[in-house]
Amino acid sequence: RWQKIFMFPLWSKMAVFWNKMFLTIIVLLIVLFLDAVREVRKYSSVHVNEKAANVNSSAFDHIQMKLFRSQRNLYLSGFSLFLWLVLRRTVTLLTQLAKEMASHAALETQVNDATEAAKKYMAENERLQEALSGKGDSKKKESTDATEEKLKEEVERLKAELQKTSNAFQKAKTEVAAFKKQSEGLRRDYDHLMKEFEQLQQSLNKAEDKKDL
User: Fold this and answer.
1) DSSP structure class, residue 42
2) Where is the composition biased (Basic and acidic residues) (predicted)?
3) How far apart are CA 26 and CA 87, in angstroms?
């Protein structure tokens, strides 16, 4: 069902638009990150200078508030940029995994078809041998031998195709397992980053509450 949904022509038409949107968001996050770095460096130096100059408390608190907000923006933009890239990579791996699973199913079908064809030719060979057994006519024997040789060649060809298809099937199976392992690793990293992001957000909220008090 999901394959039918994602195979709509509408998605292929929107792919170019979404790629441009992704690049736009990446550029925007990079700009916000660099601006946050600049603000942190700016207010850090001002914070040190004002603290050394022993100015009044209201101006010093205002500088501390600016510094805190710039640091918060730095953390948020940095984590957003990183998580956005992780999300993009996860979607790419899931797409590749879906393609490999589809090719895996196609190879499995091809292997089954080749096996059925080989069984069919072997059954026909056995029937010909049974039908022609006991007849001593040389011409019929020659015809039977030629037919048998032809069937043997066909069986050998089918066995070679079956072996080739089996090798491709094992290769696709190995690649699917590798993609699954990589996607599980990315999922664990994503969960770990989300936990760290939630802890950071809680600490920032606590710091804002303390500032308000």
Assistant:
1) H
2) 136-154
3) 12
